[in-house]
Amino acid sequence: MATSTEDKPAQKTSDKSELAWVSHSSDEANRYDSSAVFSPYYSEGLKEKFMRKTRENPFVPIGCLLTAAVLSYGLWNFRTGNMKRSQTMMRLRIGAQGFTIVALIVGLGMSSMSNKSTAPVHK
Fold first, then answer.
1. CA distance 98 to 59
2. What is the 8-class DSSP label of residue 57?
3. How far, in Å, CA of 70 to CA of 92, rounded?
4. How many other C-beta atoms are found inside a 10 Å radius of the C-beta of residue 102?
5. How far is residue 25's CA from residue 33's CA, in Å, rounded to a whole number?
6. Which DSSP symbol is given to 5?
7. Which residues of 21-35 are buried (b: 16+ CB within 10 A; e: fewer)?
């Protein structure tokens, strides 16, 4: 059975006018004021964000530094052959990691509670 061009569905040729709604002009992009749309932290850099988060929940960076310090000291003791102290430091590292996780969860909970108290109530 021979197929003819009549049996095949007609294919549309893509026309740029069909996709004109997709393109954005620079006038449309500049029409919106980004400061009205985004939060006040939109333009903050990495350092500013780190400092803000540290002020909001200072125990998380303290826990991270404590974990890193205990881990480093434990690895140094392992390398020098002081196995008893190395084992103690690894156990303390677990405690420091637990402290960091608890601090993170408590900070998130406090942040969530403060956001609920300041959020407008919709009726």
1. 12
2. -
3. 7
4. 13
5. 15
6. T
7. eeeeeeeeeeeeeee
Question: For tokens 């049996």, what's the residue?
Answer: 7
CB atoms within 10 A of CB 70: 20
Element (H or E) spanning 61, and its range?
A: helix 59-80
Q: CA-to-CA distance for 72 and 93, rounded, in angstroms?
A: 10
* Predicted confidence pLDDT, tens digits, the chain (123 residues): 555 555 555 555 555 666 655 555 544 555 555 554 555 546 778 888 889 888 888 899 999 999 999 999 999 999 999 999 999 999 999 999 999 999 999 988 888 888 776 656 565
Q: Identify the sign of the CA torsion 47, 49, 50, 52.
A: positive
Residues 91, 102: Cα–Cα separation, whole Å: 17
With vertex at residue 69, the alpha carbon angle to CA 74 and CA 103, rounded to the nearest 5 degrees, is 120
Burial of 71 (0-12, 13-18, 19+ CB in 10 A): middle
Assess contact for 80 and 40: CB atoms under 8 A: no
